[in-house]
Amino acid sequence: MHDRVKRGEIDMEGRKRVLSLGTVAMDVVIETKQLPREDGFGFIESERLIPGGSAANLSVALAHLGIEVYQTGKIGDDKYGNEFRRTLVEDGVDDRFLVTKPGGSTLHTYIITIPGGKHCILANLGDSVASLEPEELPENILEGIDFFYTDMFSARASIHLGKLAKKKGIPVLYNMQ
């Protein structure tokens, strides 16, 4: 990215505006000395909540680089969704287009780590992250946006915004991992 800034491909002074749609989650990171054996028992050394999801991670990284970022996607109004929104804003990302599902559950993962970097991940998809519909987004959501990024979670909303961005001449970056 640094070389692209030098070449002027990314105008850091002009504060490009990015709309990001996709995976938004809370990660529960659990550190332990060893994973339990089958039917075994283990002790947790530490446990912490960290916001995550590929779209949200990109949004936070861009915000830290001084880019104006707007996050859209869908969370529940549960403890994970509330904490996600709080930390997203704290990290400098605009949450005005983030949709909250009343009574919904937010995507969250349990990441169990041991020394040496080994880990396993259990995901609870919840009922919100993949259910964002185009009708839930404001009609003018792309107004003033310079780039649209999506990882295709909430496929219908991603395709809708991608088509709309193309019509408006806004570059679209699809993360198809």
Fold and architecture overview:
There is one protein chain. This protein is an alpha/beta fold. The relative contact order is 0.20. The strands form 2 sheets. A 5-stranded parallel beta sheet has the order 5-4-1-8-9, sandwiched between helices. Strands 3-2-6-7 form a 4-stranded mixed beta sheet. It contains 4 helices and 9 strands; from the N terminus they run H-E-E-E-H-E-H-E-E-E-E-H-E. The two termini are 20 Å apart. The model is unreliable at 1-12 (pLDDT under 50).
Q: What's the N-to-C terminus distance? A: 20 Å
Total beta-strand segments:
9
Question: What value does the Rg take, in angstroms?
Answer: 18 Å
**DSSP strand (E) fraction?**
25-35%
Residue stretches low in confidence (pLDDT < 50, at least 5 long) are 1-12
Note the main sheet. 5 strands, parallel
The averaged pLDDT comes out at: 92
Order of helices and strands: HEEEHEHEEEEHE
Shape: elongated
- The largest beta-sheet arranges its strands as 5-4-1-8-9
Class inferred from helices and paired strands: alpha/beta
In which range does the helix fraction lie? 10-25%
| Count of DSSP H/I helices | 4
